[in-house]
Amino acid sequence: MSQTEHSTPTISPVSISEQRNAAVQRRADYPYHFPKDRRRMGGKFTVEEGAQRLLRFFYLERRLGQGLGSWTLTIPDFEVKLETGRHIFWHFDAAKRLRDRLFEMEIRLPQIDSYRDAEIDALLDELLSASDTPELLIGVHLVLGRAIEVAYRHHIDDTCPVTDAPTIRVLKQVLLDYEPMLEWAEQAIEAYVEGGIEAPRLERWRWHLKSLLASIGGVTGVEARTPAPTPLRTDTTPYLRGVIPCRDSRFDTFYHTGDYNVADGAPRYEIGSYEDQRLRFIRTQRDEVDAIEAFGTFLWDIRFKDFKAEYDLARITWDEARHTEIGHNSLLAAGYDPYEMPNRLTSSTCRGPMEPEFAMAEINLFGEIGVLKTIGGLIDEARSRNDTLLAHISDYVRADERTHVRKGQHILKVMTTLGMQELELRTRELFTECLVSLGAVKMDGDLFTLDREEIERLVGE
Fold it and tell me: How high is the pLDDT of residue 438?
C-alpha cells in the first residue's frame, strides 16, 4: 500500500493548556510577518516507490541522449544538427541530476548505472528507425519528450512537497530545459511541413509511436497498457547508426583536402598572414559541426560503458555546437555570408565508419592538442591588433579545448586498453589510409604513415 496522508492512524494530540496559550501569545507579540509555507504534508510515494519512477526517468534521459548522438552524422539540416548537439547534453544533464538524487534515495551508483529496461530499449530503437529527420523530431520531442514533460509535472504534483522537496527541485530544473527544447521542436516541425514534408506521414508516425509508448505503460510504466502497434520497423530491420556525414543544400562541401585555400581554388589572403590565419580559425569553428557528429557518435558507440564518460561526451558535444555557432556568427560579423564558405567534410568522412577509440584519439591527441599549440599566439596577435572579435572568441575556445583535452583522457581509457604509443600509431595509420582514399594525400611509391603535424594540418579541428 502506498504511503499516503490517509494511511496515518488517528492519534489524538495531548496539549498542555498553559504551553499552548503561551505559544499563542508569543506569536501574537512577534513583530515579523514572513510569507507562510503553503505546502502540506502528504504524497503518493514511499522512498522506494519514488526511486523506482526516478530510475525509469533516468534511463529514458540516458537513452534519449545516446539515441540523438547516433543521429548526429545523419541529420543534414544545419540548425537541427546544432540543436541536437545542445539537446544531447540537456538529456544527459537531466540524467545526471536524477542519478544524483537516486543516490540520495539510497540506490547505489552501480545499481543505477546497470539499470536496463528492454521495453524502453525497443521503443527507442523503433523511434530511432525514423525515415528522416522530421520523423526523428516527432518521436524524440513530440511523442516521448512531451510525455516525459507531463510525467515530471505529475510527479511534482503527486510526491510530498516537504519530505521529497529535493526531487521536486531536480524535476523543476530539468523542466527549464524541456520548455525551450519542445517549443523549438514544434517550430521545427512546422518549418518542415511548410517546406514540403508531408504532414499526414508525420502524423501517422506520431500515432504509431504514441501507441507503442502506451503499450509499455507510458513513461512511468504504470499506466494502463494497450496493444502494441504492428508491424514495427525494427521487426525487419534492426536500427544501425549512420556512417556518412550529411549537410543541407545551402552548403558547398569538400572532402578531398583539409586546406581551405586549396578547396577555395585560390587563397583569399596571403598564405601564412594574420588575415589568413584569422579566417582559417573562424572557418574551422564553423566546421566543428563535424565535431558534433564525432562526439555524438562516440556516445552511441560506447553506450553503457561508463556514465561519466557518456556525460563528458555529451557536454563536449554541446561545446562543439557552441563552437559551430561561434564560427557561423563570427563569419557574419566579419562580413561574410557563412554559406559562401565551402564546408569541410574530411574529418567526418574519415571518422564516421571508424572504431570510436581511433576516431576519438584523432580529435584528442591530434586535433585539440594541435589547437592548443597555436591558439595562444593567435590570441596575443589578435589583442595586439585590437581585433576584439577574434580575441573574444578564441579566448573562450581555448578554455573549452583545455577542458576537452583533460576530459578526453578518461574517455580514451574507457574506450580502449591500448597504450598511448600504440593508439597514436594505429590512429595515424588509419587516417593516412582514409586521406589517401579521399585523394587528400598522394601516394608516391612505398607505403607511408603521416606524422602528427601532417594529420593536424590535413584533417584539422
Answer: 84
